Structure formats: structure tokens, C-alpha cells
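re: ur question from yesterday

yeah so i grabbed the chain u mentioned. its 213 aa long if i counted rite. heres the sequnce exactly as i have it in my notes:
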Amino acid sequence: LGPNGAGKTTLMRALATVVKPAGGTLTLLGHPVHNRADLHTLRRSLGYLPQHFGFYPRFTVREFVEYLAWLKHLPKATIPDAVQHAIDRVGLTAKADTRMKTLSGGMLRRAGIAQAIVNNPAVLLLDEPTVGLDPEQRLDFRELLRDLGTDSCVLVSTHLVEDVAVACTDVILINDGQLVHQGTTDDLITHGGPDDPGDSPAERGYSALLRRH
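ran it thru and got these C-alpha cells back, copy pasting raw so excuse formatting
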């Protein structure tokens, strides 16, 4: 959690092994990310949804998820079942054979999550997954995040405090690339006071921590 420009996307890209950290040590699932020999094994255990993800507009949802399953080196015989399970999990069963270019913003996000979970990842990285969604779509998305968290460690990057407060168990607050706070979502609430900006206890806690930083 953090404001725009805090370094959230850079951190997520490093965790997804898209970019190399400029310094320090990064270890995921017991594997050092700087060790190229471990990257292939590590990436098989990751799922990643960038804030802006590319797709072929004429692909159907099923074709899109199948293509990503192939890129992730899933065994050929397991791909059809894995793809169907991922599509069902995100609530796109009825849209499986619909072209990607015709989907709404919320459905596109769900298709993006389907490709991210098709390999049943141990760690699922979602960068700003609710940006651009209307209030009803965000409510649906929060429910989906809670469901995904029963099987995987889900790390969500966002500047929308309420998404964290409602859907997450733990929060790491960063600003200017620095750790500001780490704790539970309940801890976040305790830092706010009635004079801090925000429409909810979580937002007031967020504002108070940033102001102290």
C-alpha cells in the first residue's frame, strides 16, 4: 500500500523477476532471485498480473489463458483442465469463448487473473488490480481476492486503502521506496485519529502514517 510513485510497481516487477533489483538481496520461496539458475524453477511457482497487461484482442478468453499456460510450460495433457478451472475460478465460465476485445474492464481483469492462476501458483502478484473498476466491480473483485487467498499467498499492490482494509490480512505501507509500516490491517486503523484526513478509520490511519514519514 502506498501513494502513486511510492515504488509499488517496481517492487512487484522485481518480485515477478521481470527486473533485477538494483541492490540488496531478494529471496522468493527459498530461491535467490539474482541466481539465474533458480529463475526457471521459481517462475513456475509464480502468478503475475501487471497493472497493464497485453493480450491479442481476437483471442477468446480460453485461447488467452491456454496461451499463457503454454508459455508457463504446463504439461500439454494438463492444460485443458487447468484452463477451465482457472476460468471457472474467476467467474468467466459463460464468457470462456468470448473474444477478449469485447470484455468489460472488470471481465478483462478477471481474465488476467485467470492466466495468473492457471499454473496454481504458490505466490500470486497482482499490481493495482482494481484500478479503473466501478464500485460494484471492485466489490466483486475483493471477494475474489479473499477466495484466491485460501490457496495462494496473494500480494496486492494498490493505493486504494479500502481494498486492503476489506480484502487483506496484512499491510506493508511504503513511500518513496522506503518501508513506513508493517502489520495487520487492524494495526493500520489504530494509527489514525479524528483529525487525520480520510473517510474511514483505515484511510485516517494511512494518512497519519504517511504524514509522520
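noticed a couple things. The first strand starts at residue 27 and ends at 28. also The domain at 8-168 is CATH 3.40.50.300 (Rossmann fold).
anyway ttyl
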